[in-house]
Automatic annotation (TrEMBL):
The keyword Repressor does not apply. The keyword Transferase applies. GO terms for molecular function: acyltransferase activity, transferring groups other than amino-acyl groups. This is GNAT family N-acetyltransferase. Gene3D superfamilies: 3.40.630.30. Pfam families: Acetyltransf_1 (PF00583). SUPFAM superfamilies: Acyl-CoA N-acyltransferases (Nat) (SSF55729). It comes from Cronobacter sakazakii (Enterobacter sakazakii).
Length: 275
């Protein structure tokens, strides 16, 4: 049976984190990039991303899981945090129907836009999103530190509360990729750092490798090399420091000049403006 009309959707809140992680892994089986996640990591990651389980959907055909969509929400903005169709149902025309349902529900909630990320090379996924009205806005990349020098504590890096950094950023920053936004960064266990009270960063420490999740320079201190200096100090302090694949590609020179290598996976950030 592959008739989209025969499917029924239920809010994801009816499943535990363990069950949703298992569903997500099954639906991502054979995906372009290997995907593994357990229940604890699911709750840790998607909680910080403001996934709303009441707005997220699991589609079923009888008792068989067909697809899962995770929806993050912040005010009038939403994000498709994950969308995966079970291998048995791929290529059968259900994707467009399910996406249109998600967009209709976002519109009914009063949201003004929905964003998503799609891996460059996932041509089928990108084509689906374009068919339902999404357009590419940015190319996102990831970085990892390499060959750090031995860290010498010069007291230049001052620990500070990630929440304080997020508040500063929120007053000044607009339209950051969702995973690098201050709301996401402060929700993850980690530490903030300040350099001369001019440049700030948030490092998430709960992953297998430390992750840079926010980087911000006060407006009056920009174009003076503070971001590069801060990145270099963090690169020394945290061996293997990396970012998610969520950094605007236009920042690549800054990272590469600070001891980071760009990673091979790239994503397009896409947006649908809901009217």
């Amino acid at each position: 049976m592959s008739n989209p009309a025969a499917l029924h959707a239920r809010p994801a809140l009816h499943w535990s984190s363990e069950a949703l992680a298992s569903i997500l892994c099954r639906c991502f089986d054979g995906y372009l990039v290997p995907f593994q996640l357990d229940g604890a990591a699911f709750a840790y990651r998607f909680g910080a991303e403001n996934v709303c389980l009441n707005a997220s959907r699991v589609w079923l055909a009888g008792e068989q899981v067909v697809a899962l969509a995770l929806i993050s929400r912040r005010g009038w903005r939403s994000r498709l945090a994950a969308f995966a169709i079970h291998p048995d149902w791929r290529g059968k025309g259900v994707g467009k129907t399910l996406m249109m349902q998600l967009l209709d529900e976002a519109h009914e909630r009063g949201e003004k836009s929905m964003t998503l990320e799609v891996i460059v090379g996932n041509d089928a996924g990108q084509a689906l999103y374009e068919r339902v009205g999404f357009t590419c806005e940015k190319t996102l990349v990831g970085f990892q530190a390499h060959s750090p020098a031995a860290f010498v504590n010069t007291q230049a890096l001052m620990p500070c509360d990630p929440h304080d950094i997020a508040q500063r950023m929120a007053a000044q920053v607009e339209d950051l990729p969702w995973l690098m936004a201050p709301e996401t960064a402060q929700a993850l266990p980690g530490t903030g750092f300040s350099l001369d009270d001019k440049a700030f960063a948030i490092i998430a420490t709960g992953f297998a490798q430390p992750q840079l999740r926010a980087l911000w320079v006060a407006p009056q201190a920009r174009r003076e090399g503070h971001a590069r200096q801060l990145l270099s100090l963090l690169h020394e302090r945290f061996a293997g420091l990396m970012t998610p694949v969520a950094v605007d590609q236009r920042l690549a020179p800054l990272f590469e000049q600070s001891g980071f290598r760009i990673q091979p996976v790239r994503q397009y950030e896409m947006r649908h403006r809901l009217n």
